[in-house]
Design a protein that fits this description.
- With 398 residues, this protein is of the alpha/beta class.
- It folds into 2 domains: 4-187 and 303-390, Aminopeptidase (3-Layer(aba) Sandwich), CATH 3.40.630; 190-302, 2-Layer Sandwich (Alpha-Beta Plaits), CATH 3.30.70.
- It has helices at 4-29, 38-51, 111-127, 149-155, 213-231, 269-289, 309-323, 341-345, 376-392; strands at 55-60, 64-70, 78-84, 135-141, 164-172, 179-181, 184-187, 189-198, 202-203, 238-247, 253-254, 257-266, 293-302, 305-307, 328-330, 350-358.
- It has an 8-stranded mixed beta sheet with strand order 1-2-4-3-5-16-6-15, with helices on both faces. It has a 4-stranded antiparallel beta sheet with strand order 10-12-8-13, with helices on one face. Strands 7-14 form a two-stranded antiparallel sheet.
- Strand 3, helix 3 (111-127) and strand 4 (135-141) form a beta-alpha-beta unit.
- The longest helix has 26 residues, at 4-29.
- It starts with a helix and ends in a 6-residue tail after the last helix.
- It binds nickel (II) ion (NI).
- Residues 109, 111, 144, 169 line the site of nickel (II) ion.
């Protein structure tokens, strides 16, 4: 049984829904790559202005936007809600009527949907202002796909005084009207390495005159796998993937140099911290054994996305009330994908949840993916109710 407030919220969500659908179609038609979200940002800022948010800040950390909706009194906690805005360098192959108008760029990760959900939530919260105390800070973040936008927003004070934060990610393979979440690690850290192996070039028929960087590199690739299989506990999860190996120019020349690049994924900060030493030790040992020199550049990228327990509880409660208990999935396993939402979680407790975009949807980052219109309603309802529940504590009663 749900009481009147939920009906009021639902009526509000239904009122804003057509605007959110329209906004998503516009964003989907005009996708922009990371760091180039100028049109997207202008469009979103304009909509937020029309909606009547209490403050609006543009060009935050590049093309980011921060807006606030202030409740019935100025004081109280600050809750942040975050959406990302950037698209991917993929040519759209789906035949939706709002198909991308730009060659080779599309919203293949559904960030059009995330932004439209947050626009709808902004509008809903504006008309529900009298029902909560405190402030909702809406963060429209650029450059998520290159794991740079969250850091840029935080550096410009985006998380200052924020008490809690929520975000969602559209999830194909999960029915519309369902959400998924887990406490603790939700997504992995994503760090990268560049390895240069310096050998000595020679004629391919005279290998004894060379120090072959291809053979050394092949051993490095193989030996790196032992970090996962022999140095990491079988119950922990680590990924070491070498994703690029460049060397050589002809059939009959042993080159002087090989370049290897790859990524390391972890589910705990502790493991993440010791990985650079492990990787370098293996590279150094193999190269030394094979008489080659090496250079390594290991860069920390996105931290582990760690969902806060009490914020997850809130998502589960709100999800059960809005979507039904059966539609709140407990995710047994985290994903070893990464999400720069993790950066915000270093500044306030929060949680990210998956929002179903359809069981039969193609995977994220593929040419026919489309967030769709259907997930907007549950998305807006979840975000709006999360804000109300977090700030007022009692907006949903059962
Ligand atoms: Ni994404």
């Amino acid at each position: 049984m749900l009481d009147e407030p939920r009906e009021i919220v639902n009526a509000t969500v239904m009122k804003v829904l057509p605007h959110a659908i329209q906004a998503r179609h516009h964003l989907h038609r005009h996708p922009e790559l990371s760091f180039h979200e100028e049109h997207t940002a202008r469009f979103i800022a304009e909509k937020l202005g029309d909606i009547g948010v209490d403050s609006l800040q543009t060009s935050v950390g590049g093309n980011g936007i921060i807006a606030t909706v202030i409740g019935k009194n100025g004081s109280g906690p600050i809750l942040a809600l975050r959406a990302d805005m950037d698209a991917l360098p993929i040519h759209e192959e789906g035949d939706v009527e709002y198909r991308s108008e730009y060659e080779g760029v599309m919203h293949a990760c559904g960030h059009d949907g995330h932004s439209a959900v947050l626009l709808g939530t902004a509008e809903a919260l504006c008309s529900l202002r009298t029902r909560f105390a405190g402030t909702v800070r809406l963060i429209f973040q650029p450059a998520e796909e290159v794991a740079a936008g969250a850091r840029a927003i935080v550096e410009e004070g985006g998380m200052k005084d924020v008490d809690g934060i929520f975000a969602l990610h559209g999830w194909p393979g999960m029915d519309v009207g369902r959400i998924g979440i887990r406490t603790g690690a939700m997504m992995a850290s994503a760090d990268t390495f560049d390895i240069t192996i310096e050998g000595r070039g020679a004629h391919a028929a005279m290998p004894h005159l060379s120090v072959d960087p291809i053979v050394a590199g092949a051993h490095v690739v193989t030996a790196l796998q032992s970090i996962v299989s022999r140095e990491t506990s079988p119950v922990d999860s680590v990924v070491v993937s070498v994703t690029q190996f460049h060397a050589g120019s002809a059939h009959n020349i042993i080159p002087a140099r090989a370049e290897l690049k790859g990524t390391v994924r972890c589910l705990t900060s502790e493991l993440r911290q010791i990985m650079p030493e492990r990787v370098e030790r293996v590279v150094a040992g193999v190269c030394s054994a094979l008489n080659a020199e090496y250079k390594i550049n290991y860069r920390f990228g996105t931290p582990v996305t760690i969902n806060d327990e009490s914020m997850v509880t809130l998502v589960r409660e709100v999800g059960s009330a809005c979507l039904g208990e059966d539609n709140v999935e407990h995710l047994e396993w985290p994903s070893l994908g990464a999400e720069d939402f993790a950066v915000y979680l270093g500044h306030a407790p929060g949680a990210m949840f998956r929002l179903g975009t359809g069981l039969a949807k193609p995977p994220l980052h593929t040419p026919t993916y489309d967030f769709g219109d259907e997930p907007l309603r549950p998305g807006i309802e979840m975000m709006t109710q999360l804000a109300l529940r977090y700030l007022a504590g009692a907006s949903i009663a059962q």
